[in-house]
Amino acid sequence: MDKILRIDMGAEGGPKISESGLGDYAGLGGRAITSAVVAKEVPPLCHPLGANNKLVIAPGLMSGTAAAMSGRLSVGCKSPLTGGIKEANSGGQASQVLARLGIAAIILEGQPADDTLYKVTINSEGAQIKPDNSLKTLGNYDVVDKMKEEYGDKIACISIGPAGEMKLSSATIACTDMELRPTRHAGRGGVGAVMGSKGVKVLVLDDAGKSMRAPKDPEKFKEANRTWVAGIKKHPVSGEGMPAYGTNVLTNVINEAGGYPTNNFRFGQFKGADKISGETLAELENARGGEGSATHGCHRGCVIRCSGTFYDKDGNYVTKQPEYETVWAHGANCGIDDLDVIAQLDRLDDDYGIDTIEMGATIAVAMEAGLAEFGDGEAAINFVKEVGKGTDLGRILGNGAAVTGKIFGVERVPVVKGQALPAYDPRVIQGIGVTYATTPMGADHTAGYAVTANVLGVGGNVDPLKPEGQVELSRNLQIITAAVDATGMCIFIAFPALDQPETFQSLIDLINSFHGLNMDADGVAALGKSILKTERDFNKAAGFTAQHDRLPEFFKTEKLSPHNITFAVSDEDLDSLYNW
Ligand code: SF4
């Protein structure tokens, strides 16, 4: 990966593509390069949808190699949802394909002169950009079908749906999976709105004629990959639980722990949890036939394979197996206990290009405002359709929970830095509350997944109900996660890597043998810290202060059943997170 592709959408005479070496960004990948480019090239006070913002799309340092699990794609920009720096990452095939094409980053910059919509094609012969207004208002599924007709089925697509074209703050960027369906999304922070503001509907990638990236030390690399794969397969979570039930294996676990946010974070347990659990989902998928549940990866080289396919009762494809966060956001958080309704919502979200977490949280806020009853699946489906149609109500909802709460006068709005909280209540899983409050990304469970030591007994044990030890736990996880996000590794490798020292070492060995480096665990931590510092400095310059590193007030005043406790980590302790 030795080149950066820049596409200046505001160039004289129409969009211009230029290619350059890595320059200041040499040695960086994934979140490290997206955040470095945004911090260096985007004025922190610029409008996120304006000419000065940039959208950076980057494979990880290990993407395109034979290293297992290395296919996450990072997308960075100034976020229209949070107003701060954003890195959202996605599975699917795009990262591996881009890396094999030798591209370390694509940077979309400038502002188009008019509302023409463009498509970008990138293959071994180079990159082209062409206007294609026939793509206007199409959902992601139709866009991909059209690209398949034009370019064949050996491609990977990165696209936006109508939500991105409308520049809504919960718009995603979709990546196609191994079945060439747009089911994987860089979901958070409205990155799709930034792509929409650049006038780009789809990037079509084709790595025909290119081969896997070659390691500097093939023997050591092979050996490290063997240990790596064996470690992932022997861990009970990554080797058994996730392949059998997908990420939704967590529903019963988090519900039993009393930290499963229900009816807009009103309760910590959901009566209908069993009906939407991973176990029930797997049973339903198996009973309906098709490809069965949880049997494949979202990209080549995944050995955990937490993914599956959801079919309706007549055996017709609906969507990929909905993830735990989606099942929660559209399920318990809206009081809905029907997997068919949740799957329909997931399909609509993927097609319109909307973040399932933000959308679910927004519907729950709308329900709290009295626009519908909790548990009303039909109303939830109609809300999402309003977003897809771009009605006035749809545009409000599509701009997320914070905007919706403000417009309908709701006090209990679960957001940090404008971004909705995911599927773990911070009063009962206090370590994740620290992550929600302090990560530069806005509330984001993946930025420092403290559920590990708080609930799952992975990487140690820290009492989830007490404030002690949570800042240290979240700090260490945020540091390591930032580094892992630079490699392109799927975050689920955290389970074996945190629990099994030899598996963590094999990840370091993979990086070293591939790139000819001599990094140790301290070097990995140093990389993570430097990414976090870059991001935090950007946010500071964009106007963020300690007051933005706080949970909404109601988490400190309203006790959550069944444990009847509030979030108890002090502001002073939160402010110490970056003191390393
Ligand atoms: S574990 Fe799941 S999310 Fe991660 S790469 Fe595999 S299929 Fe994708």
Q: Would you kindly provide a written description of the structure presented here, covering whatever features stand out?
A:
The chain has 580 residues and is of the alpha+beta class. It is built from 24 helices and 16 strands. Helix 1 packs across helix 19 (470-487) and helix 19 packs across helix 22 (521-541). The longest helix has 21 residues, at 521-541. The relative contact order is 0.13. The mean pLDDT is 96. The protein binds iron/sulfur cluster (SF4). The site of iron/sulfur cluster has 12 residues, from loops.
Strand content: 5-15%
Give the names of the bound compounds.
iron/sulfur cluster
Write down the Rg: 22 Å
Q: What best-fitting shape do the alpha-carbon axes yield?
A: globular
Residue runs with pLDDT of under 50 for 5 or more positions? none
Q: Tell me about the biggest sheet?
A: 6 strands, mixed
The helix-and-strand class reads alpha+beta
Average pLDDT over all residues:
96
Number of beta-strand segments: 16
Task: State the share of residues found in helices, binned by percent.
Answer: 40-55%
Distance between the termini: 32 Å
Describe the strand arrangement of the main beta sheet, using strand numbers.
2-1-6-3-4-5
Briefly, what is this?
The protein has 24 helices and 16 strands. The chain is α+β, with helices and mostly antiparallel strands.
